[in-house]
Amino acid sequence: MLDQIKGLHHVTSMAANAAENNAFFTHKLGLRRVKKTVNFDAPDVYHLYYADEFGTPGSVMTYFPFPNIGKGRHGVGEVGTTVFSVPEGSLGYWQKHLADQGVKNIERQEKFGESRLAFTGPDGEGFAVLEGKGDERAPWVKGGVPADEAIRGFHSASLRLKDGGATEELLKFMGYEEVDTSGNTKRLAVKGGNGADVIDIETVPGAPFAGLGAGSVHHIAFAVENRAEQLEVRKALMDTGYQVTPVIDRDYFWAIYFRTPGGVLFEVATNEPGFDRDEDTAHLGEALKLPTQHEHLRGQLERHLQPLGD
């Protein structure tokens, strides 16, 4: 069993409208936009990152907003719900705040003995805020949500699968342990993790397969401290039979990717070098940052990319 992975690093999804996406995360959820860059493989599309003040791994929600992309179809083989941790006693605030902001499908839930508030994003993606016990992570305090209620980072993410057995074995190999079961959902966690260290496997045998589009999670990333640990994880996965990409430089972290038995795309990302490698912490996410290979396109991209309405 691996011990390098400490929980989630980031979750990356797809959207249809960059300005709407930016407004949802920065104004409605009160997160900080920590990076405004572009998709490495499609530089005419933004890659937007939202997180805490520093872009701490375990707090980072990222998006590819493809203009006019078709709507995703929810089903099995995808990340179902991304869950943020908020302080105990704050769900009343969030219920009123989200309703006042026009957020849709708000529903109070109890799962695994925890109170949470489920809701949907602008493209129909599934989110929840959950009252995390003893979560001492510092929030971003300049996003319009009071510090006593603000999001601390991720709590967990759920995987919606037709058969969860093989993915469960993979996660246990990656250092997760089973901690609880409720109905058709099995909960796994990394002990002593980074706070964003819970994965729920929801088994839905009769559901159709998901279709990628706006509102879909493109991939889910797990955190390791550095490149040396990442190479250890890569070798172990390949020795187990997984087809893993070479290490890819994503400017703010190094990444490897592989497809899981249940169909979800997993990434393992390094905590280094971080989002302040090309911007001062006080000004994260303000300027358009381009990968070196796309810098020659700056003029064209600045004219093409949709204004975010900061």
TrEMBL record:
SUPFAM superfamilies the UniProt entry points to: Glyoxalase/Bleomycin resistance protein/Dihydroxybiphenyl dioxygenase
Gene3D superfamilies reported for this sequence: 2,3-Dihydroxybiphenyl 1,2-Dioxygenase, domain 1
A Pfam entry, by short name: Glyoxalase
InterPro entries: Extradiol_RC_dioxygenase, Glyas_Bleomycin-R_OHBP_Dase, Glyas_Fos-R_dOase_dom, VOC_core
Domain VOC: 7-132, 153-271
Protein name in UniProt: VOC family protein
Species in which this protein is naturally found: Oryzicola mucosus
